[in-house]
Amino acid sequence: MKRVLVAPLDWGLGHATRCIPIIKVLLESGCEVILAGSGASVALLKTEFPEREGVELPGYKPTYPASGSMMIKVALQAPKFLNAVLKENSATEKLVEKHQINFVISDNRYGCYSREVPSVFITHQLKLIAPAGWRWLATFANYVTHIFIKRFSECWVPDLPGSVLSGKLSRTENQQIKFIGPLSRLSTYPKTIKHDLLAVISGPEPQRTFFEQLVIREVVKSGLKALIVRGVIGTERKMIADGVEVVDHLNSEKLSEAIAASKLVLSRSGYSTIMDLARLSKKAIFVPTPGQTEQEYLAHRFKELQVAYFMDQKSFSLAHALDEFEKYTGFENYFSDDDRLKQALASYLQS
Fold this sequence. Notes:
Elements: E1 3-8, H1 14-17, H2 20-28, E2 32-37, H3 39-48, E3 53-56, H4 70-75, H5 78-99, E4 103-107, E5 119-122, H6 135-149, E6 154-157, E7 177-179, E8 197-200, H7 207-222, E9 226-229, E10 237-241, E11 244-247, H8 252-260, E12 265-267, H9 271-280, E13 284-286, H10 293-304, E14 309-310, H11 318-324, H12 339-349
Parallel strand pairs: 1-2, 1-4, 2-3, 4-5, 5-6, 6-7, 8-9, 8-12, 9-11, 12-13, 13-14
Antiparallel strand pairs: 10-11
């Protein structure tokens, strides 16, 4: 039996949610899976896989700005992150020895690899996007991150060849990069519409809270029948207005049902969210996290492709967005299964 360590980054929940299909395939293949990480990411995985053992890795613990460029704020924390990477690598080597790990899967944790066993790095962002005037910063950051990625046995991109979903974030001529298909924890369900709108709140603080307050205000004002998922680990569920329900968190099955039962999804344009929408072929309105250049790029990309409408948070009007979203196709042509993921894992599990 292969013993596999799976470790998502602790920046938001997206890295953890896209590890869920990986863990499911590993369990179906008879592997023993050990969950590693810190904070809410491990807590989320434990809610999905309560029988799995969870172990702590040092957290990166980023802080985010209330305004301005997120990338620049994050870049200023580079010494702290480098220290976390070094501690993380030391901790990983100890876990490999202690638990007799055969295979390590790291989602964007640059230090989570071992010199003793095969280690795979998962990312959809091979190229960072800098704000205007800071291109040199992206060039330097890309150089440093690629040095770390080369320490892994392989790098896997959760997209189809040609970077169908991620666009220029993952375009590469490097033949060593393996495209394993989009990763989504969600399952398809019959489309019996119960809600006009499903709003999925996510992302780092304080912007997550700002977005939640904005969405609640706009949804209540709209008079729509809506479900709002706050994107925090908890169990509270309540009605806040006629036809408007708010829930802290939904597991994979319940979120799949909720998306299938909703005419439209309102969310951030994070890559994990985009993979979920592609899996379920849904229409969406995006509101990218302010200052997060990756989300801003993806929102612009899918608007230009006539797939999804987006608005900036500072000028967001749900009424205006509802007038526009019907002009867009939604993610109806982007569905993919887990065959590429299974093939990529098989090459390690059968060795």
